[in-house]
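[User] I wish I could look at a protein chain and see how it folds. I have put the entry right below:
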Amino acid sequence: MDWIESVKTYIRVVEEGSFNQAARRLNTTTSAVSKRIHFLEERIGVQLLKRTTRSLSQTEAGAMFYHRGKAQVEQWQSLVDETRSINQTPTGLLRVGATLALGSKFFMRYVDDFLHQYPHIKVQLITTLPGQLPELSFDIYIGREIENLDTLSFRAAPLIDYQSGFYAAPSYLKQYGEPQTIADLIHHNMLIWGEKVDREVRLTTLGERSKKVRLTGNFSTTNPEALFHSAKRGMGIILSNQVMLQEEIERGELVRILPNVTSDHTRVYAYYPKLDYEHTRTQLFVEYLKQRLESEKDVKVV
């Protein structure tokens, strides 16, 4: 009996919660599903599922087998797709990890056109928490520099450098006026990215040395959409970059202020699992991003 098909069947049984439903999803019979599960349990020598007339649950060994087996099946399918695509149209699943901010604002600006160019590639975006380490199940992880990166398991390739600037809604500027210098920011309400209502940043005015400045305000969040929405509502000024705010800028919802003031450079990396080969679809995606980013202001492709 086929090991791969049996493992796929076990994964489907666990996810569907019953043999009958798994059989329907796999377009086979309940008897065939039962035989594949029995084959696995007999060959491995442990019970994977606890079965009664009314319920189905995993044993401890079964739970471990499900998680590890699912990852292995995905890697196997990825290998098959990659091998097929060497002399064919690029195909297969591209698993991309990114923080919510980079995933929702940066990544989503480009994925639609990429999928139109490569219609046989499928993309799965998995959002992560800030500071969370990339997972080996990702084909690529897009994020800022990671201090504690496992260099035995991952490669880090610099993707872009960018600087942030200050943005506000026209309604806010009409009501409170526009700051002309960094010192003026103390008289304005800053909308803060982070868990505190104040934030220390290093800012540079064109032609001058950089200086540390503490930004304070009445609203902070770790949700990028909430931050951008509050700025569009005229609640205050945000420190962000054009890549994230392109659509809001084009619609006139936010405008750049203090154009000669920027934050220090931030570098975004593409992190890859160390493999004996690199997926064609991963290479295509990184090159596509770099080409698109060449036209962006305040961004340097590296």
User: Anything to note?
Assistant: The radius of gyration is 25 Å. The domain at 3-81 is CATH 1.10.10.10 (Arc Repressor Mutant, subunit A).
